[in-house]
Amino acid sequence: MKTDFFRGRRLRRSPGLRAMVRETRLAPEDLIMPYFVVDTPDVNFCKEITSMPGQHQLSLARLEARVGAAVEHGLRALMLFGIPKNKDAQASEAYAPDGIVQRAVAMLKKRWPELQIITDVCLCEYTSHGHCGLLRTGDERGEVLNDPTLELLAKTAVSHVEAGADMVAPSDMMDGRILALRQALDVAGFANTPIMAYSVKYASAFYGPFRDAAESTPQFGDRKTYQMDPGNADEALREAAADIAEGADIIMVKPAGPYQDIIRLVRDRYDHPVAAYQVSGEYAMIKAAALNGWIDEDAVVMESLLGIRRAGAKLIITYFTEDVLRKGLVR
Length: 331
Ligand code: PBG
Hints:
Elements: H1 15-21, E1 31-38, E2 46-48, E3 56-58, H2 60-72, E4 77-83, H3 100-111, E5 116-121, E6 134-135, E7 144-145, H4 147-163, E8 167-170, H5 177-187, E9 196-201, H6 208-214, H7 234-246, E10 250-254, H8 260-269, E11 274-278, H9 280-291, H10 297-311, E12 315-318, H11 321-326
Helix pairs in contact: 2-3, 3-4, 4-5
Ligand PBG binds near residues 207, 210, 279 and 280.
């Protein structure tokens, strides 16, 4: 028998050898943990999100405790979402200097100056109707207005950075928002603050659990007039190109797992760092199967994150960040 065939098994013989030839790895600084902070007088408020076991809506004090523990385990970066006291048509609390995200940023930055604080910039958690932008007055079930929304998004971003945020991440999908944010930040004296753009954000059913967490389900209609159609890949490149031209520093693809081809496309085409968001529905699916004893949670989590990293994402926003750091799965 001829034996001059490829012997791939030679390099798989031992853990040491496998580690030597492993191409893709995760490091703590690749991971970003999302948190939901609630504006509430109840300092001990901590409510588990039913559709996201292990994730909670937290008061400011509870957030502080939770982040403190995560920092002990090596947390380097987090992303903040706020749940305001009141929602209104103008999303007033999104850009209030004493809004919940602004206060949370200030608190975290004071306690952990080295921790990278990224804020999600969007109006959907703050509008009474749950859409990511403004509606025309008297047209409460109508079109989400693009240009009038830009000014409020820019105001929101500036207020986050004034509170101490290291980076802003606009997730609204209005056209021109990166330019609007960049100009407003520059004028406010924050020319050095980077923007992580949710450039390629699909209108995805995988956001369902998040909307429970952030209480941001649209009261009518859906987000398909501003978020992307899941069938499109060329359009992803147009969105990324536009955001880069407008001044984005990091390009994000979202969701992550079902869109790994898009991550690779953006990675190959552009030389900006790519981030991917393993969203709430991706988290919920893994958790649900794990809680049923159907899969090995740690192994599946690591494989899912490695897949996203291998597809081309340098940064991963994932609700598993705390877990994998605490368990030493990423060191
Ligand atoms: C806000 C926003 C959403 C997510 C991040 N920022 C929800 C949405 O667009 O409906 C989703 C995150 C997740 O599902 O984990 N616009």
